[in-house]
């Protein structure tokens, strides 16, 4: 069977038109041969979401955005997207815009919800949400930091201004003089340190002997401590307690009038007798001094002793 040229031309034209329609629909994100389910979501701002953007469920691509149009005169946007997977989710599942990195664009994720048993059907409108992207997070974190940096810059500028006002020519000269004096002091300390080093080097032998003597003294102290450790301190303590007890007994005897010393301290008669005996002894010694010939007489020619002189009672 032969086709005429007109028939062939018509068939080619029909095929070309079909390809054109199919290609145009494909470029717009529609697949005419696909039986995917269509869903809708309403947003106040799609934040860079565009047709042909991916639609994912748990990170797996299950469809794409087919169109984004104004819903009404209020500026709300109607986003239409397809889901080519048989994965079932409820009508309360969330259509969430996410992504928006430095390179990649926005995408739409379906967050399944299973509390509602009523499954979503093609043509349903799902609840919408927008997840903060990396740029929004960066702006959110950088805004407080920017405020703090601005405050620091203002404080630093005020500090530098005050510093410049303080560091007038006179103050700088004073600081220069201070640093010069400090350098001179450091040089003096350095000279003193050198002198001390020379003294130490010149007397190193004496220092060695001194440390040797200190070492020997330490050894002697150790020996002395060992000797003290061997002393019977407990016995000495017992002897000392015994001596103290004896002294205490003697003191008690004296206080109670026992013995001659006790009677002397407590009995007035003993004291008076002793006082009289002392007076008489003194008178006797005075009489011996005044009249020695009465007690000792040596005479070769028989001369009689002189006249008697009574002793003076000086103790009255």
UniProtKB/TrEMBL annotation:
Pfam families with a match to the protein in the record: MlaD
Protein name in UniProt: MlaD family protein
Keyword Transmembrane helix attached: yes
Membrane-crossing residue ranges in chain numbering: 7-27
Boundaries of every Mce/MlaD domain copy: 39-112
InterPro entries named in the record: Mce/MlaD (IPR003399), MlaD_Phospholipid_Transporter (IPR052336)
Keywords: Membrane, Transmembrane, Transmembrane helix
């Amino acid at each position: 069977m032969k086709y005429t040229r007109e028939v062939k031309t018509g068939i080619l034209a029909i095929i070309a038109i079909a390809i054109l329609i199919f290609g145009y629909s494909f470029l717009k994100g529609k697949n005419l041969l696909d039986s995917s389910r269509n869903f809708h979501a309403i947003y106040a701002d799609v934040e860079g979401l565009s047709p042909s953007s991916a639609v994912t469920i748990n990170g797996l691509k299950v469809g794409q955005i087919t169109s984004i149009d104004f819903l009404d005169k209020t500026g709300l946007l109607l986003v239409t997207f397809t889901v080519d997977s048989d994965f079932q989710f409820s009508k309360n599942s969330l259509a969430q815009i996410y992504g928006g990195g430095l390179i990649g664009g926005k995408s739409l994720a379906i967050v399944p919800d299973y509390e509602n048993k009523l499954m979503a059907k093609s043509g349903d409108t799902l609840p919408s949400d927008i997840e903060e992207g990396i740029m929004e997070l960066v702006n959110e974190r950088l805004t407080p930091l920017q405020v703090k940096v601005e405050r620091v810059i203002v404080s630093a500028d005020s500090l530098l201004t005050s510093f410049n006002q303080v560091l007038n020519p006179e103050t700088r000269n004073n600081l220069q003089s201070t640093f010069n004096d400090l350098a001179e002091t450091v040089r003096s300390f350095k000279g003193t340190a050198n002198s001390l080093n020379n003294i130490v080097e010149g007397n190193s032998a004496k220092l060695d002997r001194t440390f040797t003597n200190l070492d020997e003294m330490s050894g002697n102290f150790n020996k002395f401590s060992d000797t003290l450790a061997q002393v019977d301190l407990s016995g000495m303590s017992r002897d000392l307690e015994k001596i103290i007890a004896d002294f205490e007994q003697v003191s008690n005897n004296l206080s109670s009038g026992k013995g001659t010393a006790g009677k002397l301290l407590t009995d007035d008669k003993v004291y008076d007798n002793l006082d009289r005996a002392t007076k008489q002894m003194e008178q006797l010694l005075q009489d011996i001094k005044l009249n020695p010939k009465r007690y000792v007489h040596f005479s070769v020619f028989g001369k009689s002793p002189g006249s008697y002189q009574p002793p003076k009672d000086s103790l009255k």
